[in-house]
Amino acid sequence: MRISTFAGLLFTLGVAGRAHAQSVLNPEQPWGSWLVGTVQLPGSATNRWGGFAEVQIRTNAVFHDYFYNEIKAGGSFDIDPNFTATVAGGRYTTSEYQDLGAGPLNSEKRLWEQLVLTQYTHRLKLEHRYRIEQRWFTFRDDRTEFRQRFRYRLNAFLPLGHQKIEPGTAFLVAYDEVFLNPKGPVFERNRVYGGVGYQFNKHLFLQVGYVNQANYNYTASQGQFILQNTAAKNNVVLNVTYKILHKNAKAQPVEKLPSQPD
Fold it and tell me: Which residues form the signal peptide (predicted)?
């Protein structure tokens, strides 16, 4: 896979995101930001168990007007070097950025199970992620609600100047993720991301990118998917990842990708 081909993928995803944002039913919103800090313990050749913990903050404008946070963690097991199962959970809180003193609009407790399949070619690295979520909501008026959701993400990495993502390597990354609601609207959300990352050493990674997240509503009378009003939003993403390695990680035959757990 050539760099030009990967660049074409990034361009296509970016165009798709801009098309969502320019919908007449979805007036333009200010850019927001996602600030993400992650600690990962990937499985190794002789110790298949791993895990992660992550804190995320989102703002309605770039680096200000805070309104949302996530705290989550989980454990993983490498079924084989390219096939990983994970069970995780977290707490998600949404507030009104103009009135934080009023307390959260809603808080969510979430549990999920996922399988990740990775494919490695000469340069291009592909990751297929399949996730099932159970979600318990508590709203400001004390209402509660239970929801389920299914997610699929196709994530692509391309190291620059190296065959693998390793210390001293810059890399391109892009993904598209769809969110499905079994109760409807079935096609609930689409998330498109493109960015660039750098691995400083065997522990520290930095990614800077762009994400467009669009929510959808199904209009039965028209028979087509339509963006909800003011639902699609562009965001700057800053992600710092610290990777903890097993003592025998040098014996690991397959590289582990610096994927965002979100």
Answer: 1-21
For the chain, how big is the Rg over CA atoms in Å? 19
* Strand duo 64-80 + 187-199: pairing: unpaired
131: which 2 tokens? 């996730």
pLDDT in tens, 182-224: 887 788 899 999 999 999 999 999 999 999 998 876 554 444 5
Compute the CA torsion angle 254, 160, 212, 112 (nearest 10 deg). Answer: 10
CA-CA distance, 129 to 33, in Å (whole number)? 24
User: In the chain, where are the structural domains located?
Assistant: 3-246
Strands 187-199, 144-160: pairing kind: unpaired
Distance CA 53, CA 38 (A): 6
> Mind giving me the DSSP string for 135-165?
EEEEETTS-EEEEEEEEEEEEEEEEESSSS-
How many helical (H) and strand (E) elements, i.e. helices and strands, does the chain have? 1, 12
pLDDT at 262: 84
Tell me which amino acid residue 56 is. Answer: Q
CATH architecture label of 3-246? Beta Barrel (2.40)
For residue 75, give the 3-state DSSP assignment: strand
* pTM score: 0.85
